[in-house]
Amino acid sequence: KLRNMLDGSSFPFTISIDDPAGNSWIEPSPRDHAGKYTRREYLRTREQNEALGLEDGKAQRDGTGAPDTEIRPEYKATQMTPAMPDGGVNNVDADDEIVENRVYSFPATCPGCMKPCDTNMKMVNIPHFKQVVVMSTVCDHCGYRSNEIKTGGEIPEKGCRITMSVERPEDLARDILKSESCRLICPGLELDVQPGTVGGRFTTIEEKLSAVHTDQKHLEQKNHELVTAYEEKSRSQQQIQKLYQSLKSQVMASHVQTAASDDAENTLQTVTGSRLIDRLGTSRAPQSQYAQFSAGHRGAEQIHSRQRSSGSGGITAQYSGPAG
Length: 324
Prior knowledge:
Layout: H1 2-7, E1 13-19, E2 25-26, E3 37-42, H2 46-51, H3 58-62, E4 103-109, E5 116-125, E6 131-138, E7 145-151, E8 159-166, E9 175-178, E10 183-186, E11 191-193, E12 201-204, H4 205-222, H5 224-260, E13 267-271, E14 290-294, E15 301-307, E16 314-320
Antiparallel strand pairs: 1-8, 1-10, 2-9, 3-8, 4-5, 5-6, 6-7, 9-12, 10-11, 13-14, 15-16
């Protein structure tokens, strides 16, 4: 279904981003008709401010949290393993301002192999929006690569929610900025990417949906053994359930057969005419001439049989009890 959307055979579909920080953006167009592109700003809740670090959490407000580092200076990271690299390229000066479109490099540690590597940073100005910081890390030891977007400047006072209906192939080429605090929703795909799941990205709508598809395939390949084990377990559970239902059906059928069987102690047979009652089942009469009644394990049972004849009908009572 995602591939059909990217090929243009599933238009229109809707994509929406919800960012409490207000740092996400979808490129608008003057040709958008009413309802195609909507942007709404809203006031953040206390929980959203706490998630963004703009307000103290409940533990800090109640005084139950850890004290500040100024009170307890021993709360410091010491003897880290491995230590941060001392050398390497570093053209970032703390006293200098970051210049737009200039590439800065500083030493870092690769999260894949924990060896020293360099991280490049560049300030980019997005038209009609704001400045963002593009960060890229490449490790020469293990080949690890990562690209991430960090929004520059202060956090706006309000969050924003942008909804866009993709109706033409040109809409897939629109730029989209998704910050790390943004939630991405696509109802047509039942897609809901929660904040913090992936880092910030500055790309197009098509590339963003393609990245979601690639990440899904990567997770399926990475967890192939887990998926296979789950499928095998599901098949085993289905077989066990099927066997249980089969055994249950056989047991029920056995109970019905036992209840309908001719047990000498549990069944009495009454016949018409001058035939006697066969308590032990040694002699049989045609099925049309007698009826079977279940008598249980009680000591005596009374059976009334109304005889039909051309004359006046009569009622015959016969008793059966333990042999004396």
